[in-house]
Amino acid sequence: MMFGVTGDLARKKLMPAVYDLANRGLLPPAFALTGFARREWGREDFAQVVHDSVKKYARTPWRQETWDQLSEGIRFVQGSFDDPAAFAELKRTVERLDERRGTGGNHAFYLSIPPSAFPQVIGQLRDSGLSDPQEGTWRRVVIEKPFGSDLKTANALNEVVSEVFPPDAVFRIDHYLGKETVQNLLALRFANQLFEPMWNSQYIDHVQITMAEDIGINGRAGYYDGIGAARDVIQNHLLQLLALTAMEEPASFDAADLRAEKEKVLRAVTLPPDLSVSTARGQYTDGWRGGERVGAFLEEDGIAPDSITETYAAIKVEIPNRRWNGTPFYLRAGKRLGRRVTEIALVFKKAPSPYFQQIEGSDVGTNALVIRVQPDEGVTLKFGSKVPGTTMEVRDVTMDFAYGNAFTDESPEAYERLILDVLLGDPPLFPRHQEVASSWQILDPITAFWATQGQPEQYRSGTWGPVGADDMMARDGRTWRRP
């Protein structure tokens, strides 16, 4: 069952992902999709919406036979979240599907809705009996971020959900964890003797984790204003990437062992004592994007002219354990930056030999291992090499691995992997509440400090953020990578 079927996420990601899974033969023939919304639609109207979304956004080719089979299981229930009669009808609808399609009473509820509606919908699922599995069946709920806006609200949300669904039936979606490159990070680290011996503070000077977007808020003022870059991206996506980068090798790659190592890292994260010099935030002003003039954040529709919501956030954190003590992690995220890119960069310490540093004409930089999460997924290794000629002159060069070149199979969309994991009950890539809570414990002191600091620093659209972020790095004798 899918709630919020009229939203962009459902149309652009979820419905196409369901079709792509069916097209790849990964859904059972009995699979059914029931939509719930206020629109006065019938079954045919909703089926047409799904059809149009699939045609426009699906990753795999259109196959009429796939659609014919999938569309047989499409149903729609009209109603509002506060209407018990609508949920009673929803229950009757899925029970009829159980009988006719043979779905066996196994139901997943995808809440693609605003977080403010979670308590009401979850309460209706409980009161209608939809959340109660019969013996030998399962009921699961899928929750989209944000998981609260701070630790207090995250705990309150968790209490609401846990009253109705047991922990192993709750799937908190972080679509970044479904990306192939993020999952490959585990293989890169633990399947290769080449990297793991150097994956520590003895060799790594610092780590940069970047999520840059070249777009603005795209009409999402109602969601974004008051949330900002730190809550929207750093609390979930980037701290999850940090945990996967910094954790110890798990005993196995099942859900419990993987989560245990991520939780250890997040609990170990500490903030520097002076947040005024170890964090930075900004708001984009007008500028240029792709040769087109774009407006400022404070000029966006729905944004108050005195808004202090940040569109850029950068923080420095430390992990004072045996592996990472002395190696800082720098996290940054922003909108209307130079280009769209998400990457993890491990920047190594300079070679201890002074010889190459003294050679005139040499440009010996620092080695770096860069995991590109999006776009152009892959891995780049930067190292020094001799320039051809009679003199010993060194320049930085790169070795590049790209998924698109190395593998003939196209990587599945993140939501394909995550929806399939929900249906299989396989939860390794879904954060549990403890991970969410630990992330808020890291971020809450920062956002509380920023709330006392007035207006964020301005930066021009199309640049790489505010000067304060560069100053933050310069104080440590470092610079941001230019992706």
From TrEMBL:
Mind telling me which Pfam families this protein's record contains?
G6PD_C, G6PD_N
Q: Does the keyword Nucleotide-binding apply?
A: no
- Record keywords, A-Z: Carbohydrate metabolism, Glucose metabolism, NADP, Oxidoreductase
> Quick one: a GO cellular component term?
cytosol
Supply the source organism's classification: Bacteria, Bacillati, Actinomycetota, Actinomycetes, Micrococcales
Q: What is this protein called?
A: Glucose-6-phosphate 1-dehydrogenase
Residue ranges constituting the Glucose-6-phosphate dehydrogenase NAD-binding domain according to the UniProt record: 2-184
A Gene Ontology biological process noted in the UniProt record is: glucose metabolic process
